[in-house]
Amino acid sequence: MQVSHTMVRRAVGARSIAVRRYLKRVIETLMRVLPHWYAPVAAPEGSTIENRVSGGSQGFGHLVREQSAWRLAGRGSGRRRTGEAR
């Protein structure tokens, strides 16, 4: 659907909505899926995965393994990372 949306906006001369203020919110929303996506990945409690986003909406967050689930933590989780995803 995104391709069609972009093509229509270009065809009518409308400005792209792929700007930082929108993309940042989309990426923040998609980051919330990561604990569910990583659910089947076994790791010792306290393990962390750093998730980095590059480009116009740069940022990062951490997944922290707690008991039997992953939890999304912000930048300052204060833990040493044990993995990285880009």
Descriptive labels:
4 strands; alpha+beta; 86 residues; 30% helix
Q: Can you put this structure into words, describing what you see?
A:
The chain has 86 residues and is of the alpha+beta class. It has one domain. Helices cover 30% and strands 26% of the residues. The protein contains three helices and four strands; from the N terminus they run H-H-H-E-E-E-E. The protein has helices at residues 2-11, 20-31, 34-37; strands at 48-53, 59-66, 69-73, 83-85. The protein has a four-stranded mixed sheet. A hairpin with a 2-residue loop joins strand 2 and strand 3 (69-73). It is elongated and about 55 Å long.
Q: How would you summarize this macromolecular structure in one to three sentences?
A:
The chain has one domain (2-85). The two termini are 24 Å apart.
Class by alpha and beta content: alpha+beta
Uncertain residue segments: none
Largest sheet: 4 strands, mixed
The separation of the N and C termini measures 24 Å
Helicity level, as a percent range? 25-40%
Give, in spatial order, the strands making up the sheet with the most strands.
3-2-1-4
Q: What overall form do the CA principal axes indicate?
A: elongated
Rg, nearest Å: 17 Å
How many domains, as an integer? 1
Percent of residues in beta strands? 25-35%
Order of helices and strands: HHHEEEE
**Count of helices?**
3
The number of strands is 4
Mean pLDDT: 77
